Amino acid sequence: MFDLGEDTGTFFITMEYVPGEDLKSLIRMSKKLAAGTAISIARQVCEGLSEAHRLGVVHRDLKPSNIMIDRDGSARIMDFGIARSLQAKGLTGAGMIIGTPEYMSPEQVDGQEADQRSDIYSLGVILFEMLTGQVPFSGDTAMSIALKHKSEIPPDPKTLNKQISDELSRIILKCMQKDRKKRYQNVIDLLLDLKKASEDVPIEKKIIEPKWKSSIVVLPFADLSQEKDQEYFCDGLAEEVINALRKISELRVVARTSAFAFKGKLEDVREIGKILAVATVLEGSVRKAGKRLRVTVQLINVDGGYHLWSERYDREMEDVFAIQDDITLAVVDNLKVKLLGREKERLTKRYTNDVEAYNLFLKGQFFLNKRTAEGMKKAVLYFEQAVKRDPEYAEAYAGLANYYLLLPIYASFSPKEANLRAKEAVKTALKIDNNLAEALTSLALIKLYDEHDWEGAEQEFKRAIKLNPGYAIAHSWYASEYLVLMGRADEAFEEMERALELDPLSLVMNRDLGMTYYYGHQYDRAIAALKRTIEIEPRFILTHGLLGLAYLEKAIAEGSEPTAKAWMGTAYARMGEKQKAKDILENLLKFSEKEYVSPYFIAILNFHLKEIDQGFRWLEKAFEESDSWFNYINVDPGLDTVRSDPRLQELLKKLSLA
What we know:
Layout: E1 3-7, E2 10-14, E3 20-22, H1 23-30, H2 35-54, E4 57-58, E5 67-70, E6 75-77, E7 84-85, H3 106-109, H4 116-132, H5 142-151, H6 166-175, H7 187-197, E8 214-218, E9 222-223, H8 231-245, E10 251-253, H9 256-259, H10 269-276, E11 280-289, E12 292-301, E13 307-316, H11 320-334, H12 343-347, H13 355-368, H14 373-389, H15 394-410, H16 415-432, H17 437-449, H18 454-467, H19 472-483, H20 489-502, H21 507-519, H22 523-536, H23 543-557, H24 561-574, H25 578-592, H26 599-608, H27 612-624, H28 646-654
Parallel strand pairs: 8-10, 8-11, 9-11
Antiparallel strand pairs: 1-2, 3-5, 4-7, 5-6, 11-12, 12-13
């Protein structure tokens, strides 16, 4: 604190400004840090805590968002707002819980006095998160998370990141001992062990070596037209700038889905920047009157909230392509991003010179992005009109291909027919421009599902990513639709993380991350990813079903095998995966010949497989064997399909419930 003062009745504090990133943002951007980087940061934090503890001060709220990494690569411990003297007692009141649940020591959860070992516990949690990309304990409420620190054993970080050494894992788990007497008793001892652990680990000169020279989010432009009828054009203009900028290898550009999540919300651009972990924000507005356009744009630095550049364009509608080029090149110039190879040529490449065809394409994209049956119906009409007006419009054909590939998911349509039509659209798009990444990505998916050409599919995915490294969908589909199917789980996880880095708020990609973890047999990580998706949108398609499957597989792995397998079979049956459900039923029946399996759950599984007579035979057996689950027959949703069957009424009478 440099100064404490007062000006016209308002008190103020002057503090040091630290340019850089907080550790939480860096973890979010990188997903997990290299071992050498994590150790380097932890050692610096140890040195800072050592000085604080020497002066008799305990932090009590150590967490990644309170650790800044400045531009010189130095770690700074911030926000000693709830720090207290080690000598003072009773400052918080008996039983008062102070701290952040994800990083709170067991004694803090109990409302006990914190000491230097409490900070060491929190640092152990931070090390765990830096190296695995996740905190050791999560939950639905702050209290449920806090209680896990007190009652549950943290997972071994090596199970989440195979690159962690045995020694580093030991250090983390020692920091996180429930009994503080078993932890490191001071940070100097911890620091010495970290130094030993780093002897065979390369320590980067720079703590954070960014993958990207800079980062940006382009927000949807505001419609200031009097008639308020230019939403599709405003969205389209922002999307075109996004599409152009993402072709630059040195620039991380947040994808459309995440950028447009802030549409219509009065969020401070600095807050948006923190959420999306970007350094700059581009925002703008459009006012259209007749054939005249007024486009206003401004490029804002998230760190300080100041303007890097702003401009106003008063042009004719026919000049819209020139406006897009001017904005894109101005952003590149102001961010001091170096264009490599033919990037400038690709940056300003035009796929049509027909403004009307362009408008039709924008409307098609606008409705396609709604991902609804009604939106799909409108999207195809606009795409078809766009290619009719300009038969050489490659992007519009790619849009048409994506429409057909998505159609079976969001509407009742034959996948075989959809693939055939998508293939025709892709073929035309690539005949016009054989380097269009969007078309190549669609082609990869067609080769995958319609032709089962695994090698060809991977070649097209890789080619698309090389041509347009910022195209998040290419990374996502390559991971969730190809790599995980090939059993290359670790590669799939990395590719999905790249996709989420580009589009962190995308419902589809968050769900697909969970699906990728599920098929990669990483059930805890699948559950965490799917729960994050549900937090963003509780009603998103397929997410709850996948979450249920992940919980079931976890239950099987933890030992409650027969019951969990029966539930799994029921889930498959209800999802239409009849053969998988039948296989599980067959295994359960074999298992029941030598060990007890609840006949009640075998009955439920039979009902969902439409084996009604078999279901009632097993339900009778459940009654005869006094299966405790049988008592739920009056309320169990699993029996709703046979509620009207007289045999169920007879069974209810046996329980005196009818």
